[in-house]
Amino acid sequence: MILVVLPAYNEAEAIGRLLERLAKVASDRGLSIAALVVDDGSADGTAARAGSVTALPVRVVRHEANRGLGEAIKTGLLAAVEAVGADDVIVTMDSDDSHSPGLIQRMVERLDEGSDVVIASRYLPESRVVGLSRHRAFLSWGASKLFRIVCPISGVRDYTCGYRAYRAAVLREAFARWGREFVDQPGFSCMVDILLKLSLMPVVFSEVSMILRYDRKPGKSKMNVRRTITQTLRLLLRRRLGRYGAAAGHPERPA
C-alpha cells in the first residue's frame, strides 16, 4: 500500500485536481494508493473539497486553527505510521498540484531496489523547474549547495523538497527514537530537519529527477522566504553544534 500524506492550507482549488490525478495514476498503473489530507486550518473549504473525492480512498484530518507546515507534517506522518504496515510506503507531497503523481511509481521502484528514503530532486541533470522566478531558483540552488557543504548526506542533493517516499518502517523507528520531537521544526525547515535526523539512522537515501511545475500552482507561494532562510540557518548551526538526538539517548555521528 502507498499512503500519500498531503499537508494543505487553503488549497481548495488544487487539492481536488491533485487527488483525481493520484486516482488516475493508481488506476493506470495498478497501484494501491490512498491519501491522507491534513487540512491545516483552511478557511476556503479545502477539507470539504478533499472529502468529496471518491475516485480513491481519502481520509481528512483537520486542524481547527492554522499551525504551520511542521505541525501539519507531524500530524500526517504520525497518522500514517499508525495506518499502514511496516512494509508499506508513505509518500509526502505538496498539495498545490506542482508535484506530478506519475513519479510515485519510480520512487517506489527505488525503494524496492534498496533505498529507504527517495527524494524527488530538483538538482539532478534531468530535473526541470517550470514557472519559478530566477530569484527563488537562485536561493534554492544556493541553499542546496550550503546544505551539501555544512551537513552532507550521502545520496542527497535536495534537502527541502517535500516530495518524498519513505519506507514506513523507517518513519516508525524515527518516531520511536525521538517521539513527537522527530518533527519539531516550524515551517518549511521541518523538511530539512527530518533528513538530518534520519541521517543519524542506518538509512539509505537516493533521489529521482523530477519536473517541478510551479506554473500549476493556483496562487502565490505560502513560503516566507526570509523567515525560512533564518529558521534553516539556525537549524544548521544547531546541527553543527551536535544538539540533535542526545536528549533521546541517540548521539549524533560526527559531521
List keywords for this structure.
single chain; 255 residues; alpha/beta; Spore Coat Polysaccharide Biosynthesis Protein SpsA, Chain A; seven-stranded mixed β-sheet; two-stranded parallel sheet; 8 helices; globular; disordered C terminus
How is this structure best described in words?
There is one protein chain. The chain has helices at about 10-30, 45-50, 70-85, 105-110, 135-150, 170-180, 190-200, 225-240, and strands at about 1-10, 35-40, 60-65, 90, 115-120, 130, 165, 205-210, 210-215. By secondary structure, the chain is α/β, with parallel strands linked by helices. The chain has one domain: Spore Coat Polysaccharide Biosynthesis Protein SpsA, Chain A (Alpha-Beta Complex). It has a 7-stranded mixed β-sheet, sandwiched between helices. Strands 6-9 form a two-stranded parallel sheet. Helix 1 (about 10-30) links the parallel strand 1 (about 1-10) and strand 2. Helix 3 packs across helix 6 and helix 5 (about 135-150) runs parallel beside helix 8 (about 225-240). The longest helix is centred in the N-terminal third of the chain and has 18 residues, at about 10-30.
